[in-house]
Amino acid sequence: MLCGIDEAGRGPLAGPLVVAGVVLKKEIVGLNDSKVLSEKKREKLFEEIIKESKYHIIFTNAKTIDEKGLSFCLKSSIMEIMENLKNDCNTFLMDGNTTFGIVDLACKIKADATVPQVSAASILAKVSRDRYMLNISKDFPNYDFHKHKGYGTKVHVEAIKQFGRSSEHRYTFRLKALGEENTGTQKGLF
C-alpha cells in the first residue's frame, strides 16, 4: 500500500503549514492536484477521502515556522505522518523533488497530479488549511484572510503595510514591498 504525502501553505505570508498523508482504502474518482480543482470539487472530494482512507494531517503554526525554519517543519511533519501510518502502508511518496534526507521516503515531481494517494493528500492539506484561514479571518478582520488565505496578494501586502503583522504572520518571510532586507531565511517576495 502507498501513502501519498503533500503540503499546503509553504509560501504564504500568514497561517500554518499543513502536511497530509493519505492511504486510500478504495479508488476515488476525480482526484487531482488540489490547485487545479474548484473549491466546490475539493470540498466534495475532501469528505470522500476522509471516509475512504487512513490519513494524518499536521498543522505547524507561523511562530514555529519562524523559530525552526520551513524545511525543519516539513521534515518533522513528514516523519510524524510516516510514524502514524507505518502500519497501513509500505511505501511513502512525497510530492516534489526532495526527501529532506528521510530514509524510506520517495519523491516525485507533480505526484499531486499523477498519483491518486498524493492527489488525495494535496486535497486534505489544502482544504484543511483553507478552512483554518476562513475560521481565523473573523478574528483578524483587517487582513481579509478569507479572501487570499494568507498568500502575498497586493491587498494582503497593503494590509501588512497599514496594520503590521499579526500573530498569524510569518515574521521571517521578508517583504521587499515593505523595504525589508532578506535574512536568508526566506527570499524577498514582493
From TrEMBL:
Keyword Manganese belongs to the record: yes
Q: Which SUPFAM superfamilies match?
A: Ribonuclease H-like
Q: Name one Pfam family in it.
A: RNase_HII
InterPro entries xref list: RNase_HII (IPR022898), RNase_HII/HIII (IPR001352), RNase_HII/HIII_dom (IPR024567), RNaseH-like_sf (IPR012337), RNaseH_sf (IPR036397)
Q: Name one GO cellular component term.
A: cytoplasm
Q: Which cofactor is essential here?
A: Mn(2+); Mg(2+)
Q: Which GO terms describe its molecular function?
A: manganese ion binding; RNA binding; RNA-DNA hybrid ribonuclease activity
Positions bound to a divalent metal cation = 6-7, 95
EC number(s) in its UniProt entry?
3.1.26.4
State the species of origin.
Arcobacter caeni
Keyword Hydrolase included in the entry's annotation: yes
Q: Where in the cell is it found?
A: Cytoplasm
Q: What is this protein called?
A: Ribonuclease HII
Q: Which CDD domains match?
A: RNase_HII_bacteria_HII_like
> What is this protein's function?
Endonuclease that specifically degrades the RNA of RNA-DNA hybrids.
The annotation note on the cofactor reads:
Manganese or magnesium. Binds 1 divalent metal ion per monomer in the absence of substrate. May bind a second metal ion after substrate binding.
Q: Which UniProt keywords apply?
A: Cytoplasm, Endonuclease, Hydrolase, Manganese, Metal-binding, Nuclease
Q: Which Gene3D superfamilies match?
A: Ribonuclease H-like superfamily/Ribonuclease H
Which reaction does this enzyme catalyse, per its entry? Endonucleolytic cleavage to 5'-phosphomonoester
Indicate where this protein is primarily found. Answer: cytoplasm
